[in-house]
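Z., the sequence and structure:
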Amino acid sequence: MLITRKSPFQTELSWLQDEMNRVFGLDSGGKQASFNPNVTIWEQDDKFLLEMELPGFAQEDVNIEILPTGVLSVQGERSVVEQDSTNLVSGSQRYGRVQKEYKLPNSVDTDSVDAKLVNGMLTITLGKKAKAKARKIDLV
């Protein structure tokens, strides 16, 4: 099982505060807006699948790493698209910074990890290590 290290409640409150500051024209203290994307994790016999919704993100906006501590780190940033000579009246598009970390179980083979971003859906495939099998040793 993959475990997140950041509280979703804390991230949503931070995003809400940034949005309120933006709507009322207040300075957010130099902080970048952030949001908590929807994430689904599946386990199959030979792999884990992690799906993360990142609408509007391009491949160059996303950075995925496996840290030496056995943590999968997903980071990304999406900027607000501003129109010339227009004022935003209302909006529901999410923008800002995404940072998620997951402690990987020992069964993950860190050499067989693939990722793809298609139509705003990031899919990370984490292969599992081959299970150790008992082997009979014949006497010579």
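The chain has a mean pLDDT of 80. Helices lie at 8-23.

Let me know what you think.
H.
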